Records
---
Amino acid sequence: MALAGPGARGRTLRWPRVLLFGDSITEYSFQESGWGAYLADRLVRKCDVVNRGISGYNTRWAKLILPRLITESAESIVAITIFFGANDSALKDLNPKQHVPLEEYAANLKSMIQYLKSVDITEDRIILITPPPLQESAWEKACLAKGDKLNRCNATTGQYAQACVQVAKDCGTDVLDLWTLMQKNQDFSSYLSDGLHLSPKGSSFLAAQLWSRLENKVSALPSLLPYWRDVDHTNPEASLL
């Protein structure tokens, strides 16, 4: 993001970026009490947090659009999250449009990592996030309200989470195993708003877990532009340009 526009004096100032790439759980992350909003607040004046969540998408579609979202001008991206699997793990017989077979899911994640590396986003800047656990009774209510049957199950989601963790090990990226971490609390239903998407409590949990992995990637970033008390009011150009 250019702070100084055309014709402004001084060099153009560009904010570093943390990019959040995923499905609806990412798209909703800037809602009130959302995990993306939390990160943006923590990183204000250091970098932009950019939401590229696309509701309903799976990795089959995500790998096709990634090159349109991130081009060769990716040097400003200091970290990126890849957060898919909640849709890929939909049951094939009941939700064939979103379902992606487990082996293809893993291959798609690897493909996205390889693309990011091709535009100079190294493994140490990539964080994979597994799908969260599914609370089946709550999600079944949400499905029935739309005239559908329960189209996901937690055990299947867990297989996709394990595949995501393995991809991270194979490719040398960070990973946040949300499926496992959330279930350390025996009753994880409070982390979910409808059995699938995050509640405010779940979003707070994700934000805290993600920050512990993200902090070391952004800790060296300086605050951009001087604190207002440090601006020379008699000659602001000297301290701002």
---
Amino acid sequence: QVDVAAMARLFGYVDVTDTGFIVAVLSIAFNPLFWNVVARWEHKTRALSQVFGSPHAACYCLGAVILVLNCVRSHCFTEAMKSQPKVEGWDSHWTYYSGLAISAVGTLFVISSFLALGFTGTFLGDYFGILMEEKVTSFPFSVLDNPMYWGSTAIYLGWSLMHASPAGLLLTAVVAISYTIAVLYEGPFTEEIYRRKQKGVKSK
């Protein structure tokens, strides 16, 4: 059972009305909303491919924008943690190295996902018509679904523990929720793209 009193004490450290905290929440929520809206618009209209001259150029451009937005999100996340109090009992070597280990695992998932998918596979290439030959099932996809998202979440979790930051933990929960919602929208849509591809191949 969840210790409600302990949770209340923990999040008593967090000022959710702080401007930096609000900006961090908005940046976390904005990123997956942005790339899903833009990618679906591209899939429907091919407007970006026309502007940039090819689907690959358009995908690389969107990927670059997503990377910049993720850097902004991480900066906002860190600044929000720095502006709020730490839990003194967590400010120890044990917590720091636990957080470091969690971040390392998250980084492993993110990097290995990128290597398995490539740039266009990572940054929504299938919405641009750049489809992979088959579903990737090698590590880390053999361990869990959506390892890029959950690896990123683990990095934020570890970062929060390293800073003994309740605000960071709450923001990590926002990251996890935003990715969960993104998966609910992206998963069926991507599966439909590849279902149509297979149907087209079989009809030839």
---
Amino acid sequence: MNWGFLCNLLSGVNKYSTGIGRIWVAVVFMFRLLVYIVAAESIWKYEHDEFECNIKQPGCENVCFDHFFPVSHIRLWALQLIMVSTPSLLVVFHVAYRDNREKHHNQKPYKSPGEIDGGLLCTYLTSLILKTGFEIVFLVLFYKLYNGFKVPRLVKCDIRPCPNTVDCYISKPTEKMIFLYFLVATSCLCIVLNLSELSYLIFKYSIKR
């Protein structure tokens, strides 16, 4: 996957962010995107091929893998990265619209969220709410799909066409568990940063009013 567009998007929004917002961008770049590209993607690259059951019944291994891993961890993580970053498009589109309009009035463009008018501030706050909402939704989704952020060493499967209860083994479970915990920790950190920035902007706007 080419992540260039996502990087450019976050870099553009960074110009209109507060200090807390810039920390959020740094966390997404360094502790989520780079970790995904450099390390996490390779760990789950052959997870289906390395999933083994102690029976050679045709179809049994496939249905067991689909039951315990309905969505790949790494693909769900990639979707989460995309979804929590796309609300920033609201800010980019709003700024592009305003910059184009201000050119006809020879006015200065926005400098930072603390100095913008109510329109862009409202858009910025909406993007923060959406990012926080997506983070929470994906954390709940991970928890529901994978039984509480766990990667077991052994799973027992009795789904047809398996003739009986069979033991299936997951490759590198400890390594995958570490990265899953890292995913949860960085998601929680981003939620805290988003809520902090949201509270800061609302408080600052209230004082200004």
---
Amino acid sequence: PQGSEEAKAFVNAFLKRSMPKKKDEAIQEILTRKAVVLEHYSQKKKKPKRKKPKGFTAKQRRELRLFEIEPEQQKYSIFLPLHELWKQYIRDLCHGLKPDAQPHILQAKLLKADLHGAIVTVTKSKCPSYVGITGIILQEFKHVFKIITKEDKLKVVPKFNNVFSLEIDGFISYIYGSRFQLRASERSAKKFKLKGTIDL
């Protein structure tokens, strides 16, 4: 029956098991109220850590020849559609390359743009044999450009000590390779400072 000693003992024992962090005085205080809220202590499940998939090392990429262009693919005509795509990309990036556009704004955008597919010419160089090389950029690395010429020759041109020019819709931009030694992914986040004179 309600109010009996057995019932009180059962309730006290039940509350101690249900609320192990409470002291006896706190439990007695809770009993004076009509409503009792039982606490539930659940064990937090540890989430298994996801392992990030490991990519190839630089040595493995070289062994697999992932970045090498096969000799039968080294043809200027194959990459002309890539150049057309690049021109459309630059027009979209620069909002149409209008004649009244400010050159320094266009230059800033071109410096951060992806150059794969651009036609560039080496205009100045400390090594005379590089001057005049013109072609489509197939690959850009931190220190070199890989360029395919109209003669279907793949040229590896260092950025250091070379000045490159690229032309699109009548707008000519010059790239000082010595200040351009960055990977394409890093260049998009870099802030380039305008300089009055730049050495090769």
